[in-house]
Amino acid sequence: MAETPLIHHELPVADQADTARRFMLSAATEHSSVTPAAELADWLARRTVAGRARISRIPFAEATGWAFDVRSGNLAHASGRFFSVEGISVRTDRQWISSWIQPIIVQAEIGILGILVKEFDGVLHCLMQTKMEPGNVNTVQLSPTVQATRSNYLGVHRGKHVDYLDYFTGARGGRVLVDVLQSEQGAWFLHKRNRNMVVETEEDVPVGDDYRWLTFGQIKQLLQRDNVVNMDSRTVISCVPAVGFEAPDGDGTFAGSLLQSLAGNTSALHSGSDILSWLTEIRATRDLVQRRIPLNDTVQGGWYRDDVQIAHESGRYFKVVAVSVEASSREVSGWRQPLVEPNNPGLTAFLTKRVNGVLHVLMQARVDAGSLNGAELAPTVHCQPDNYAHYPERYRPSYLDYVLTVDPRRIRYDVMQSEEGGRFLHAQNRNVVIDVGDDIPVEAPYGYRWMTLNQLGVLLMHSNYLNVEARSLLACMRTLW
């Protein structure tokens, strides 16, 4: 089958400042006559029932179409598409456990995460869908208009056509508002990226049962609830520009300071060039040596395989399991596949502080096993806390203990959010935003920098600066103004 050509510069690219202004108006619009609040709640409830699926754990031997290679032990699909589970050997310059071996997902395909937007009554609305993913803790979550791997939209699974895909491949007219490649979970994927897109249309668009037009303000409200807006939606939302819009004068509140930080009409602690030089130096000087190895060889790192799982002998980190899926709401009504299952919930936290009256976020330069370009900007704290319970105190992640014991009155956002349910089983992170006040000094360790939200927004216009956990949390943080 011939591959569908993907657009890049064929559609006219929008002016950033005008786009930012229009999205900020949409974010301030929490009520819509297109999809009223009562209808939204009813639609979500009905689609959750309609999207129910039967998901069962099965032995690897029953995962039809998937098999372990006789020589390498790699777990792959018979078609050679989708993804494989292989081994990786990693060497870094960390002081504690500087090298290790682990299984990792290898998926060279670049998928599309796309939100179609249209203006109603002068306000941008996003065409969002309720989508069942086998790994979601609650099965159905709010997804982008299009959420598809290349294997999906090329029909490798012999399923139905992906709705609205033509708007993101150049087959239909439209205006590109966002178009950037961004990384996926570096701890579990090797060099994985997806194309994050927002395309505006003026056409009349037929809307299926699984889809509704929502303002950013309505999505913002849903982001205040556990496990409603999925990870793919959050990463696209984070890439929506805020650069160039005019923010009102700050009112002294956390929300007002956040809006000022987002707009960028205030000074930052570090210049943009200083931040880029700091991150480039870390990428150039920190060790990250990755070597793909046969999955069989991960036994040298303490991993074992039995009939139903690939797991670590310590009981920490994650497992690889197989599931059977029966779902009438997807392109294919039933299938079997491997999933990565974390053993414990994760924690992602932003420490925020007003420096000279301007809200800053403390970002860390983080290297993961599968990182493409070395270090990316990550949340201040980004880990599975239970994995570090046995570590000596000096080797525990910086600021972890502060986040775990902080005065609840300093917490501005605290919501559980799922990771991508197509590859991960019941993977959740506690997403936290903390206003540290005077608890944390401005002076930060070498691998950390205080940055404004505007500076992060500028970097999000380019690929591979913020990791997916930082993008997800940034989307959540935008709900606070």
From TrEMBL:
Pfam families, sorted: Hexose_dehydrat
Regions annotated as coiled coil: none
Annotated InterPro entries: EvaA-like, EvaA-like_sf
Ranges of residues in domain dTDP-4-dehydro-6-deoxy-alpha-D-glucopyranose 2,3-dehydratase: 38-240, 274-477
Protein name as annotated: dTDP-4-dehydro-6-deoxy-alpha-D-glucopyranose 2,3-dehydratase
Species for this entry: Kibdelosporangium persicum
